[in-house]
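Allow me, if you will, to draw on your knowledge of protein folds for a short while. I have a record of one protein: its chain in single-letter code and its fold written as discrete structure tokens. The full record is reproduced below for your convenience:
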Amino acid sequence: MGASTEDHAPAQTEGTATAVPGGAPDETPNARWGRSGVGAIVGTALVGLVLGTLLGWLVFGGSTPADDSAEAGFARDMVEHHAQAVEMSLEVLQTTEDPGVRTLATDIASTQGNQLGQMEGWIRQWDLPMARPGDRMDWMGEAHSHHHMHVVDDAPMAGMASPEQMESLRNAEGEAADILYLQLMTTHHIAGVDMAQAILDAGADGEVQRLAVAMVNGQEAEISLMKDMLAHFGAQTQEDLGQTVGVADGGAAGATEGHEGHTDGSEETGEHDH
């Protein structure tokens, strides 16, 4: 197993550095996470939901976005996008032994769980259905066509992992799981930044603008961090490889323009000698 990425990790929070009250002193980090982590992330989403609803009443008042507006499209798509980021982070937290990966995944799950709740709160306050009136990402328009983002067959939208990639992440262990998580999350963040920038370019203001700016700044910083962490493992992003990770057939996957050819995920995430 390669060297730890601890040097690349964000500052650890108290929750990731200490045992859960009531836990056995010799519990592994994975066991401690299993006892409390999911509940903590659900809690952040609920806090975000309440916050989003309350802020919605205060900020949006009687003026609410239309069902087919860019704001509504952004909120609906980003709720789905964030939900997968939380799911991927919870998956790797079940297996990782790397302090840097653990801290990063905890931060992503907590932050995006909270933001997800806020956006669901907006939709509730706007009295809009979660169902879209059209296709995913239609609200982005031609100016932000996702042809340049990494798109995989069967993935719900640009940047998101396909069911096969998610299954590969669930089945991966150790360093291979850490690498695959970082590769998938980097791609996820690249698309997330593009989506957040699109709503800013569409003229969003108030709470929508504030949250989109926070997403751009936070996820761009995490993209840089994850690239450094992958380099520490002797690995690269999907974009730098020009390949799709976590797929077995090696077939065309509608990848980033100019990025064709795909390899088995075990080859990509695998087995680097350090």
Q: What stands out?
A: Residues 70-127+147-241 form a domain with the Ferritin fold (CATH 1.20.1260.10). DSSP finds nine helices and no strands in the chain. The first helix runs from residue 14 to 17. The chain has a mean pLDDT of 78.
